[in-house]
Specification:
With about 270 residues, the chain is an alpha/beta fold. It has one domain: Rossmann fold, CATH 3.40.50. About 35% of the residues lie in helices and about 20% in strands. It has nine helices and 13 strands. Strands 1-13-10-6-5-4-2-3 form an eight-stranded parallel sheet, with helices on both faces. A three-stranded mixed sheet has the order 7-8-12. A two-stranded antiparallel sheet has the order 9-11. Helix 2 links the parallel strand 2 and strand 3 (about 50-55). Helix 2 (about 35-45) packs across helix 7 (about 185-195).
């Protein structure tokens, strides 16, 4: 059940703090524009009447070296960083790219840096990707550009993504994680909305309901008419630091509207 004191995303859209972007067309850069959240954020920027600037390696910008950043951020009001590192050393990657990005933003006069991160990322031990996101958050919070950090929970398709890596034939071993999953579209919409306002510091964003990951996977496969044997086990690649409510946001999280069942019923592709 969703936490009763949590604030809905729609509620934050109706009340402050409003920033310099409200009421005028903004130029918003999406870092990682060709990635999953990046593509959705690009569409949300355009839909909301702003100018979207796509930033990614395939678009001629190398975050690791900073090449192309100054030109890409020329005239940009706000930046949304939705890069997802597939690097072998996440801490080094996130540190290097974030330092380059913040320095370029300062030179360009960017007024708001919005980072996509993960709920409770600083409470999980032994996860290199989480360690990289913590390093990234710390750089943003101590950096020269006013900032917001949107910490989102796992996406609705997280169980299927994990199962694809762990599946052997018709069997998959899966940790019984407790999640409060959120739709990727709701994450992108929230990032773009936050970018249009004044910096807010850290925010948690979650879906409306708490779910069990094993049950989510069963329902996802059943929805597709596929049968699979799911073996719940904590030996399936997740440490006990993720057990219990470790991945559930605290009171006061923003709640997106899309439930897991709503998301399952949506057309794919």
């Amino acid at each position: 059940m969703a936490r009763s004191r949590a604030t809905s995303v729609m509620a934050i859209m109706r009340r402050g703090p409003a920033g310099p972007g409200y009421g005028r067309r903004m130029r918003i850069a999406i870092i990682g524009a060709t990635g999953r959240i990046g593509k959705l954020a690009m569409a949300a920027v355009t839909r909301d009447g702003h100018e979207a600037v796509g930033v990614s390696r395939s678009l001629g910008v190398d975050l690791s070296t900073g090449d192309g950043l100054d030109a890409a951020l020329d005239g940009v009001d706000a930046v949304v960083d939705a890069v997802n590192a597939g690097a072998a050393e996440p801490v080094a990657y996130f540190t290097r790219t974030t330092e380059n990005l913040l320095a370029a933003e300062q030179r360009a006069g960017v007024r708001h840096h919005v980072l996509l991160s993960i709920v409770n990322v600083d409470r999980i031990a032994g996860n290199p990707h989480y360690d990289g996101k913590v390093a990234q958050e710390n750089l943003v919070a101590a950096g020269p550009v006013p900032w917001s950090i949107v910490r989102a929970t796992q996406f609705h398709d997280f169980p299927e993504m994990i199962a694809e890596r762990a599946r052997t034939g018709d069997t998959v071993a899966l940790a019984p994680l407790l999640l409060q999953p959120v739709a990727p579209e709701d994450v992108a919409d929230t990032l773009v909305f936050v970018a249009g306002g004044a910096p807010r510091g850290r925010l948690d964003l979650a879906g409306p309901r708490t779910e069990d990951m094993v049950d989510m996977l069963r329902r996802a496969y059943a929805h597709r008419g596929e049968t699979i044997d799911i073996v719940p086990t904590w030996r399936a690649g997740f440490g006990l630091s993720m057990s219990g409510e470790a991945l559930i946001p605290d009171e006061g999280a923003l709640l997106a509207a899309t439930t897991f069942e709503d998301w399952l019923r949506r057309p794919r592709g």
